[in-house]
Amino acid sequence: MGLGYINDKIYSGQAFGISTHLPSFFEGSIGVICPACPQPGINMVMDISPKDHVYNIHLAADGNIRQILKAKKFDEKDFALCDGVAYMVANKEYLEYLKSVSPESDKEVSNPLREARSVVLIIRGIIALSCACHTIARPNGIFNMYHGERYSNTDYAAGKTLEQFKETSLPLELNYNVACKYKINIKEHMKFYVPEMHIKVHQESCQKQFK
Fold first, then answer.
1. Do the Cβ atoms of 110 and 127 come closer than 8 Å?
2. Distance from chain centroid for Cα 187
3. What is the tens place of the pLDDT at every residue in 71-126?
4. CB-CB contact of 178 with 109 (8 Å)
5. Quick check: 130 and 59 in contact, CB under 8 A?
6. Of the N and C termini of the chain, which has fewer Cβ atoms inside 10 Å?
7. Which residues contact 80 (CB under 8 A, 6 or more apart)?
8. Strand ordering across the sheet containing 172-176
């Protein structure tokens, strides 16, 4: 067993049964959560007014197309010890989800010309969800892009990381460079914004609504 994994279990408190003192969302998790963001059941009480902006959940999503994996031989015995219990989503479950997504209903975000140059790649980048205020990655908020950046990828990671707040009424906000398109099929209980550097190349209507 890897020494790094053992250290993570110790530092996270999982080796000492810390899960019994945390909400069920963090059961078995060795990821570090943002200590400054609202964490229901940890650093805040639940009988507060959800209208108070102090308790807003600010999330940011962004991709990195340079974090790639080329096609090559792999050692079958080389496997992840902490698959799905830190920041990356569980890969097997994630791949099964992608197979279930209809190609007709899935929207492509990334540039197809950019993808055409990456035919020998197994992984064509990653997308990460983090707290927008403190840039700390969310547990189960990072995932691989196997076919370029698509809405289905972000759907899955957002769904996994937002499970923590499913029993709360805390206001949710997502900062995403394609928020203007991504929000179309999302219920209005979440607010959307486009980052300052991205909004400059959006059309005027987007700049007025999502800035």
1. no
2. 18
3. 888 777 778 888 888 898 888 899 999 888 876 666 666 554 454 455 688 888 89
4. yes
5. yes
6. N
7. 88, 91
8. 137-144, 126-131, 57-64, 172-176, 190-193
